[in-house]
Each structure stands twice: as structure tokens, then as C-alpha cells.
Amino acid sequence: MKKIKIIPTLLISTFFVFLACSESNSFEPITNDSNILSKENILNIISENISPSENNSLQFMREEEKLVRDVYILLYNKYGLKVFNNISSSEQTHTNAIKYLIEKYSLNDPVQIDVQGVYQNTKLQELYNKLIAQGSQSNIEALKVGALIEEVDIVDLVKAMNEEVDNQDIKMVYNNLKLGSENHLRAFVKNLAANGINYVPQVLDIDTYNSIIK
Predict the structure, then answer these.
(1) pLDDT band for position 5 (cuts 50, 70, 90)
(2) Ramachandran angles phi, psi of 57, nearest 5°
(3) Rounded mean pLDDT of the chain?
(4) pLDDT by residue (tens digit) across 182-209?
(5) Cβ contacts of residue 137 below 8 Å, gap of 6+?
(6) Cβ count within 10 A of residue 125
(7) Which of 67, 97, 208, 210 is deepest in the core (most CB within 10 A)?
(8) How far apart are CA 203 and CA 191, in angstroms?
(9) 206 alpha carbon, distance to own chain's centre
């Protein structure tokens, strides 16, 4: 039987602001999720029995957040767009938060050795290869890849929270990751708009997309 679930208000509070400049590669989001997703905060939430679906979800999300970080590092090195550098730092915080949950529940960590662009999950490996191929075509395609990645991340996190996870520490982390992805999506869409591109969502339904971008 699950224990009573209580989450301190502080842990579910997030604060997101934007830094907007005149350059087309501005609009980098500044996120304040490092304290919320700290190891101490995550460990302070009561532990609950963990289900197989929660274990599987954590295994997947650990590598998915790493994938996002890896793509952004590579694209920043290729194009020098600040948005990729800023968001890759946030994604490092995100994949670390999943790692803390994995350690908290003594689960297997799929990222035993953190090698950029290498994943145990074959679907994520295929996705990484596809995204890098697209993003390497031009800086505009790279920004589109960024927006697409954040869409995929949002969809995966929402599905996980609705269908796969119940423990409140996991839900707290996932919810903050989702808020971060929404923030990052707005940043990429603004960068594309600054380059004269009207981004059309590839994964999210139009109503959900508009509610995020508004």
C-alpha cells in the first residue's frame, strides 16, 4: 500500500524568466531548477514502493535527458548559438535529477559511463543519430531540432506522469522537467522567429502547443 504523499510546497515551485537580447541567438532561458532538483530536495521526499513501470520510466528518462544534453552540446560546438549552450546546462541538471532518483531507489543506472552520443536504449540511439543528421544541415535546422526535442520530451513526460509513475518524488521531478522543456521550447521558437521562421509543432497538438507558446 502506498504511503501518504506529502510534497513540500517549496519543491513544486519553479521560477522561469527569459533573457532577451537583439541577437538572433538570444532568448536563452534562465532557469532556477537546480535547487528544486537538487539531490537533497529529492532525498527529502518520502520514499515509496517503486513499481516496475516506474523503474522502466526512470531508465528511459535518464537516457532521454542525456540525449537532449548531448545533442545541444554538439550543435553548440558546431554553430556557436548561445541557446544550445544555456539549455545544455539545464539538461545536465535534469539528467542528474533522474540519477538521484535511481540512486535513491538503488536501481540500475543505464549511464554507467557518460559517453556523449551513446545510449543503451536502441530507440534513443536511433533518434540521436537522426537528430544530429538533421541538425547538421544548417543553423536553422539545428534550431528546429531543438524545438522538436522539447516537444518529444514534453509528450514523454506527460505520458509518464499520467500512465507510468505514481511516487511523488518522481512526479515532482518529472513535472519540473516538463516545465523546463516548455521553457526551452519557447526559447527555440523565439530564436526561429528571429530568423523569420514560423515554427509548426511536429508532435504536440496545436492547442497544447499554443498554450505553451502564448
Answers:
(1) very low
(2) -65, -45
(3) 87
(4) 999 999 999 999 999 999 999 999 999 9
(5) none
(6) 15
(7) 97
(8) 19
(9) 20
Q: Which residue has the cell 537580447?
A: 21
- For residue 17, report the phi and psi dihedrals to the nearest 5 degrees: -135, 160
Please state whether 15 falls in left (phi above 0), alpha (psi between -120 and 50) or beta.
beta
The model carries a pTM of: 0.84
Share of the chain above pLDDT 70, in %: 84
DSSP string, the chain: -PPP----GGGG---EEEE--SSTT--EEEE--TTTT-HHHHHHSPP-PPPHHHHHHHHHHHHHHHHHHHHHHHHHHHH--HHHHHHHHHHHHHHHHHHHHHHHTTPPPS-SS--TT--SSHHHHHHHHHHHHHHTS-HHHHHHHHHHHHHHHHHHHHHIIIII---HHHHHHHHHHHHHHHHHHHHHHHHHHHTT-----SSS-HHHHHHHH-
User: In whole angstroms, how far apart are CA 172 and each of 104, 118, 127, 133, 141?
Assistant: 14, 27, 26, 34, 32
For residue 28, list its beta bridge partners. Answer: 19
What are the strands, taking DSSP E only, across 20-61? Answer: 28-31
Q: What is the pLDDT of residues 150-182, one digit of tens each?
A: 999 999 999 999 999 999 999 999 999 999 999
